[in-house]
Design a protein that fits this description.
single chain; 149 residues; Rossmann fold; 47% helix
């Protein structure tokens, strides 16, 4: 069914929910996993233009991606990892197309109403801009990562 699954990670507790949920699906389909984190801080956005050294954010994000990728590879998954910089939605869309991903699986923070409008939502932007199926899982408590009981 799915051959390559893009999993955006934000280096927060919500990542555990989507990673736990996607493992059996990916294993059942024999899908490769494409991990991505988008560093969108000021330094990350301007790193190449200003020829800046890696910030603490970039170093921390790269180490996190490597750790998660190594864990999944140790479980037998084919995994690639990408540290993107800049606008999260633009970067994830470009990566999904470049890698030929046929599913995007992501955890959301579950903000509601005013907070969604005020903060914006990468998940919502992806939902409106891609034709790739998107699996969205509300991150957080364990009741959200196991579906209906």
């Amino acid at each position: 069914m799915y051959k390559k699954i893009l999993i955006p990670l934000d280096n927060s507790a919500t990542d555990a929910a989507i990673l736990a949920h996607i493992r059996p699906l990916a294993r059942g389909c024999g899908a490769a996993l494409v991990l991505a984190h988008v560093a969108d801080g000021f330094g990350a956005r301007l790193q190449e233009q200003l020829d800046l050294a890696d910030s603490e954010e970039i170093v921390r994000d790269r180490a996190y991606l490597e750790r998660v990728a190594a864990e999944l590879a140790g479980e037998g998954f084919a995994v690639t990892r990408h540290l993107l910089k800049g606008d999260p939605a633009d970067g994830l869309i470009a990566l999904a197309l470049k890698e030929g991903c046929d599913l995007i699986a992501m955890a959301t923070h579950g903000h509601r109403f005013f907070m969604d409008w005020f903060m914006g939502s990468v998940a919502d932007e992806l939902r409106h801009r891609v034709n790739i199926p998107i699996l969205m899982l509300k991150g957080g408590g364990s009741e959200n990562s196991h579906g209906k009981g």
